[in-house]
Amino acid sequence: MKNLLFISLDTVRADVAYSRKFSGINCLRKDSVTFLNAISSSPLTPISHATVLSGLQPYNHGIRHLFKEKLKTEVQTITQTLKEGGYKTGAVVSCPGMNKWYEFCRGFDFYDDEIPLLPDGTDPLKTVDVKKRGTALKRAPLVIEKAWTWLEKNKEEPFFLFLHFFDAHWPYEAPEKFAGDNVYEHEVAYSDHYLEKFIEKLKQEGLWEDLTVVCFSDHGEDLEGLYPNDKGGEALGHPEELGHGCLLYDQTQKVLLTIKDRKLEKNIDVVDQVRLVDIAPTVLDLMDFGQESMKFDGVSLIPIINGTSMNLPAYSETFYPEEQTEATGGKFPHVKNKKAIRINNKDKTIINLNSDDCEVFDLESDPNELKNLIG
User: Fold this and answer.
1) What's the domain range around 71?
2) Distance between CA 19 and CA 14 in Å, rounded?
3) What is the pLDDT of residue 327?
4) Which residues does 308 contact at the CB level (< 8 Å), separation at least 6?
5) Cβ count near 303 (within 10 Å)
6) DSSP secondary structure code for residue 249 in this structure
7) Is 192 domain-assigned?
8) Is the pLDDT score of 288 beyond 80?
């Protein structure tokens, strides 16, 4: 039985992750298959992680808002499947969006979701302000410290360990600056530095070579003009977009995804479009678990890795606009919930629900999604 490590780098954009600026991610990519066009099902932490852990789209796993629903009772997580198969299971998570309240803890023997209260003493879980929530986090050094404490107690048995780093989320105030061109990249570099230290420790302890590793980001970030495809903020026409949550453009939906496994070639880049919903079936395939043990909306990516084109359409949704409107007393009345379909890295359609607004983009000629073909 192989050991399994999930690494979630929350709020890390794909273009930043793949910029070659970050030595931890670079080190991981050298041993992995990297998916250059991986698409998230949601720009919000709990919804996206529910998709990763279940292999289901939001309309099937049941979490569709930032703080309204829990994972459906009947949903089986990959953690439960692995635990039933004899694995020790542990997780160290870092933000309100990964709280036990959502039922992500199903199947975990150990689930550390401890974070501080907000500066005003209130519970961060109960605010729908994504920026305010971001001030309540467990920093990267503490994540790897707690993870290693658990691992030392369980490394002699088959294990599944889930690490969640939240540093790249707003407010972009990295305690130490290791690299990067701006305040956001300083935070990415901060978590990357501690990720690299954890990888080095795994290698020193002889745990790395046969370890299956899945590293992903749950969604990206709109930096209000720091990058050429940004659209958030007053000046760019979307004051409702405070980093992520309200829009479904690639700056929040295209994410980091690498997979390391002894069955796979190393240092390979895959350009075909894939989805985070494909992680769970791919992992069960790699871990030699039968696909019949869970029901999936995603598919195993092994055929794509081996060169077979599958043309997987990528679905994304956000119902955060209605939550934000409710919480702000109607501050952004024009903002609509959205659904999107992205086809084969070529075309993308975004539907603004309960309106006549629709956006269609030719991603080959307009990768920054600046020209709505029917707008």
Assistant:
1) 4-312
2) 8
3) 85
4) none
5) 12
6) S
7) yes
8) yes
Give the separation between CA 199 and CA 107, rounded to whole angstroms. Answer: 25
Q: Angle at the Cα of 335 (from 332 to 336), degrees rounded to 5? A: 145
CA distance linking residue 288 with residue 362, whole number of Å: 39
Among residues 192, 255, 189, which one has the least CA distance to residue 221?
A: 255
Give the bridge partners for 259, in sequence order.
Answer: 33, 214
Q: Is the Cα dihedral 54, 60, 64, 68 positive or negative?
A: negative
Distances (CA, A) of 88 to 110, 111, 125, 146, 214: 9, 12, 28, 16, 17
- Look at residue 53 and tell me whether its pLDDT is greater than 80: yes
Per-residue model confidence as pLDDT tens digits over 169-186: 999 999 999 988 999 999
Return the pLDDT at 291. 67
The count of domains in the chain is 1
144 is written with which tokens? 């790897």
Residue 325 lies in a domain: no
Question: Could you tell me what percent of the chain has a pLDDT over 70?
Answer: 99
Are 298 and 277 a contacting pair, CB within 8 Å?
A: yes
From residue 350, alpha-carbon distances to 154, 272, 317, 339, 369 in Å are 45, 21, 9, 6, 11
Please indicate, yes or no, if residue 340 is contained in any of the structural domains.
Answer: no
The percent helix, strand, coil of the chain (3-state, each to 5) is 30, 20, 50
Residue 66: alpha-carbon gap to chain centroid: 14
Does 193 map to a domain?
A: yes
Four-CA torsion 66, 69, 74, 78, nearest 10 degrees? 20
Tell me the pLDDT tens digit for each residue of 254-271.
999 999 999 999 999 999
* Tens digit of each residue's pLDDT (9 = 90 or more) over 203-228: 999 999 999 999 999 999 999 999 99
308-327 pLDDT, tens digit each:
999 999 999 999 999 998 88
CATH at 306? 3.40.720.10
- CA 82 to CA 224: how far, in whole Å? 41
CB atoms within 10 A of CB 155: 17
* Pairing status of strand 212-216 against strand 257-260: antiparallel
**Which neighbouring-strand residues pair with 6?**
162, 214
